[in-house]
Every structure is written in C-alpha cells, then in structure tokens.
Amino acid sequence: MGPDACRLNRRHWLALAAAAAAAGPRPVEAALPLLLAQDTDGDIDPAGWLVSEKYDGVRAFWDGAQLRFRGGSAVAAPAWFLARLPKAPLDGELWLGRGRFDLLSGLVRRAAPDDAGWRELRYMVFELPGASGDFARRAAELARLAADAGWPQLQAVPQSSVESRQALSDRLEAVVRAGGEGLMLHRADAPYLTGRRPVLLKLKPQRDADAVVVAHLPGQGRHAGRLGALRVRQADGTEFHLGTGFSDAQRDEPPPPGSTVTFTYRGLTPQGLPRFASFLRVRPDV
Questions:
Q1: Could you tell me which residue, 267 or 55, shows the higher pLDDT?
Q2: If residue 140 lies in a helix (H) or strand (E), which one and from where to where?
Q3: What's the rounded mean pLDDT across residues 256-266?
Q4: What is the pLDDT of residues 174-229, one digit of tens each?
Q5: What distances in angstroms separate CA 246 from CA 91, 211, 261, one per listed residue?
Q6: Which residues share a beta bridge with 113?
Q7: For residues 64 and 128, what is the distance between their CA atoms, to the nearest angstrom?
Q8: Could you read off the pLDDT of 64-99 as tens digits, one per residue?
Q9: Region for residue 64 given its phi and psi (left: phi exceeds 0; alpha: psi -120 to 50; beta: otherwise)
Q10: Catalytic residue among 54, 87, 202, 204
C-alpha cells in the first residue's frame, strides 16, 4: 500500500467518522462504522481463517489524526503517543496485558492522561479500516507498518492459520489457561467490511454480550443498602436482571443508568434471554 492509497483510506475513514458524528446518537453497535464479531462455538473448521488471541483491552480507532473509542468519543492519549502512530487509519485494542482490564479502563478514561501509565500499554492493531484487498493482505500490511514504526507500543496482532478443529481447540485451551480471554477468527479472503458480520468470529469458553443499564435494583440480606441487581436492556430491546458477578466495591458504586456493561452467559432460555448471565465489566469505550 503506497502513500497515495494511505491518504485515500484516511479521507475515506474521516468521511465515515464525520457522517457518524453528524447523525447524532445511535445504537451502541452503530456508533462508528466498524467490523464487529459474531459468537461461535468450537465446532468450526478453521481452514480459510486467520486466528489470533482475543485481547481483554479497550477498542480504539485511529483515523490518522485522532484516536477514538468505539462509541466515537476521543481518547485522551498523550501527544507523544499519538505522534508515534502512522498516518494510515488503524483499528485495534489498547492493552496492558492479560488480566489487567480494570486498571486499563481507569487509565484510558482519564481526562488528563497518566503519562507513566500510557508508557506501559500497547496498541494492538488488527485491521486497516477502508483498505482494499483481502484480510490476509491487510494483515501483512499491518505487520509491515508496525515493523517500520520500530516502536514496541505499536504491535500488529499476530495472525496465523490453524490446521484442524483439534488444533483450534488446543490453542483455545492454551490461551485461556495462560489467562487470555479466547480467540478471534477472521476470514483470510474477506474484504474490509463494517457491521456485525460472519467473517469475524470470537471463540471463548463463555459467550459475552453488551447491554445498557436501565435501573438499579436494591439488594437484600447481606447486600441490603446497596446494589442487588442491574436491570439492563439489550440492543433488541429485551430486558432482564443482572445480579451476579459484582465485587463488593461495584455493588457499593454500581455502573450508572445509561452506561454500557458486558456480561457473560451460556446460551439462551426458551424466552430468548441470556442463561446464567453474569456481570463482567463496564464498557469504557461506548
């Protein structure tokens, strides 16, 4: 991809982002025109897919001039960090390492950036928004961009093929055992797309989804006087109570109404509600 193509991609991405902002508030998943993953189980033939680790980070999008959360708001990153990023648009995750999401979330949401904290995190990039060619080609170009930058804080997410279902299962087990969340599978032949598409899959021991907090329900027994459960609404309008997975600190200061939370679940009930839903974390990027 030459300089002219990068400039064209940047203009294309800026136009898309400007259009999203001009349209005003939108559903969570339409805040920016981005590719979103679908859930899958382990029974998938990995032939034709490129596989990478699913990082427990905060998604961030670089349009060549500004770094933004998935919801469209700007990330208050230090000027020196932004200055090291290439001019090509990038899509990826800000990441502090496995099991450090809460610390990361607090760091990237600060209005005034914590310089020392930002020097610890990495921007793990996995897509070139608006670029031509299939994903295998775009992944190779990302690897080249990261290598040319010569900066450890900018890394292209390693993408590799997996030879069999058993090898995919073994890799998932190894990642989870080491403290990772799961795997991502991206069709090697896929063009750049936006929206929730079957060309990008997430494979985890448990499924997860997002919902908006509607109300706080009071606790009983040992939780009297603080949060008992959240009433949350999914993108399709269905509502349910989310009452497990919270720490004592989160019950004392629960996510406010209007905020977006991620929960884990194991399939759906006959009524279409998440089964065994459990609070995972607050989404700082939407």
A1: 55
A2: helix 135-149
A3: 93
A4: 998 898 989 999 999 999 999 999 999 999 887 889 999 999 999 999 899 999 99
A5: 30, 15, 12
A6: none
A7: 11
A8: 999 999 999 999 999 999 999 999 999 999 999 998
A9: left
A10: 54
Closest among 9, 107, 113 to 64, alpha carbons compared: 9
Q: Which residues neighbour 183 within 8 Å (Cβ) at sequence distance 6 or greater? A: 51, 52, 53, 54, 168, 171, 172, 175, 202, 203, 204
Q: Which residues contact 8 (CB under 8 A, 6 or more apart)?
A: none
Q: Find where tokens 């985890």 sit.
A: 204
- Residue among 38, 19, 34 nearest 195 (CA): 34
- Count CB-CB contacts under 10 A for residue 233: 14
Rounded CA-CA distance 10/87 in Å is 8
CA distance 241 to 233: 9
- Cα 83 to Cα 16: distance, rounded to the nearest angstrom: 23
Q: Catalytic site residue 87?
A: no
The pTM for the full model equals 0.72
Q: What are the structure tokens assigned to 252, written together?
A: 């004392």
